[in-house]
């Protein structure tokens, strides 16, 4: 739903719809307030609709927003020359890192910023302090990458510009369960797998932030289509990694995926039916991958963040243990078909 005028820029995000997909970016008004205001005004007027990304550097940057590109007959030599000389520069400490959105200016000419903008796919440190960065992509970086891979000619322009179908301004998405109370986290999740359905009761008294994270991933559908990639008889079956999605596809909720500080309780025992979070050597490195306990493992107690218990479907664990494996990898694909939060 389009945002009303007057909302703080920090509460808004731009939705950029192209013929290769959609990405979204949040604004940084504390870094470049006039540039943010300018972009918001133009986007609400439909200024960008029908323009294009005309310059691409594979996994480097994409550049667009030139109004001249709305006319398919505009000579190629004029691409990138429109919509400039509108703003003075606003340089800040916002680095041109992956996902950062910044403003195009005329080389060698001060205060020549305007409507055109570019998005960094990889870090561009030579641009820091020389261009006015004003936002950061928070969803759809896979689309930005795809745009950057469009065939380009020797002059750096895309052989075929990627059309910006429209740019709209919407209220920033709110992360599910981010401010939920412990009582609001006392939910049950139904997980439909290739081998049957289990119900997991959340235990926020054990690990509230891990419960919050699991419920967010469930509510957004992030787990759906991911696979159980590891299985060790009498020990664990593990799943919940995004790269196990078909073709390693990105997901809109990737914007909220983060590492979590460990929440370890020596009182919670890792026994059959307990659900706990996988992590690397760093105790604060858990993010999305979780495991179902197939048997007692006291060496995990107090070192891994248990956050739930299976309350229905224990027979599904038996089915997992009957599956053939190569080492610790299931021989066939075993998926989380769908995970949903049960009604209260």
Describe, in plain words, how this protein is organized in 3D.
The protein is mostly beta strands. It has 2 domains: 9-171, Cyclophilin, CATH 2.40.100; 183-341, Cyclophilin, CATH 2.40.100. Helices cover 12% and strands 29% of the residues. It has 4 helices and 18 strands. The strands form 3 sheets. It has an 8-stranded antiparallel barrel. Strand 11 and strand 12 form a beta hairpin. The longest helix is centred in the N-terminal third of the chain and has 12 residues, at 33-44.
The count of domains is: 2
Beta content comes to 25-35%
Structural class assignment: mainly beta
Main β-sheet description: 8 strands, antiparallel, barrel
Strand order of the largest sheet: 1-2-7-5-6-4-3-8
Structure characteristics:
344 residues, eight-stranded antiparallel barrel, mainly beta, Cyclophilin, 4 helices
How is this structure best summarized?
It contains four helices and 18 strands.
Give the helices and strands, then pairings:
Elements: E1 12-18, E2 21-27, H1 33-44, E3 52-57, E4 61-64, E5 100-103, E6 117-120, E7 133-139, H2 141-148, E8 157-171, E9 188-193, E10 196-202, H3 208-219, E11 228-232, E12 236-239, E13 274-277, E14 290-293, E15 306-312, H4 314-321, E16 325-326, E17 329-330, E18 336-341
Antiparallel strand pairs: 1-2, 1-8, 2-7, 3-4, 3-8, 4-6, 5-6, 5-7, 9-10, 9-18, 10-15, 11-12, 12-14, 13-14, 13-15, 16-17
């Amino acid at each position: 739903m389009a945002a009303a005028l007057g909302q703080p820029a920090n509460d808004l995000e731009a939705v950029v719809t192209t013929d290769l997909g959609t990405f979204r970016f949040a604004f940084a008004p504390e870094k470049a307030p006039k540039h943010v205001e300018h972009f918001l005004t133009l986007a609400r007027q439909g200024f960008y609709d029908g323009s294009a990304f005309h310059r691409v550097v594979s996994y480097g940057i994409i550049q667009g927003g030139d109004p001249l590109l709305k006319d398919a007959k505009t000579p190629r030599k004029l691409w990138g020359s429109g919509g400039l000389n509108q703003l003075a520069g606003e340089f800040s400490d916002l680095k041109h890192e992956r996902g950062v959105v910044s403003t195009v200016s005329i080389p060698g000419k001060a205060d020549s910023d305007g409507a055109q903008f570019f998005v960094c796919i990889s870090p561009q440190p030579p641009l820091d302090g020389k261009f006015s960065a004003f936002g950061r992509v928070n969803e759809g970086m896979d689309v930005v990458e795809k745009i950057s891979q469009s065939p380009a000619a020797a002059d750096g322009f895309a052989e075929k510009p990627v059309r910006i179908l429209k740019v709209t301004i919407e209220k920033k998405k709110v992360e599910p369960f981010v401010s939920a109370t412990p009582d609001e986290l006392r939910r049950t999740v139904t997980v439909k797998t290739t081998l049957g359905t289990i119900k997991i009761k959340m235990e926020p008294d054990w690990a509230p932030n891990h419960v919050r994270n699991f419920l967010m991933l469930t509510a957004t559908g992030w787990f759906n289509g991911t696979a159980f990639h590891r299985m060790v008889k009498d020990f664990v079956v593990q799943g919940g990694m995004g790269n196990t999605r078909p073709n390693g596809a990105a997901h809109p909720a990737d914007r909220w995926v983060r590492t979590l500080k460990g929440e370890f309780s020596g009182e919670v025992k890792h026994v059959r039916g307990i659900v706990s979070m996988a992590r690397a050597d760093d105790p604060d490195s858990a993010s999305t991958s979780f495991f179902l306990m197939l048997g007692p493992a006291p060496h995990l107690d107090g070192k891994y963040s248990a956050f739930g218990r299976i309350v229905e479907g224990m027979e599904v664990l038996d089915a997992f243990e009957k599956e053939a494996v190569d080492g610790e990898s299931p021989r066939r694909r075993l998926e989380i078909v769908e995970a949903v939060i049960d009604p209260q």
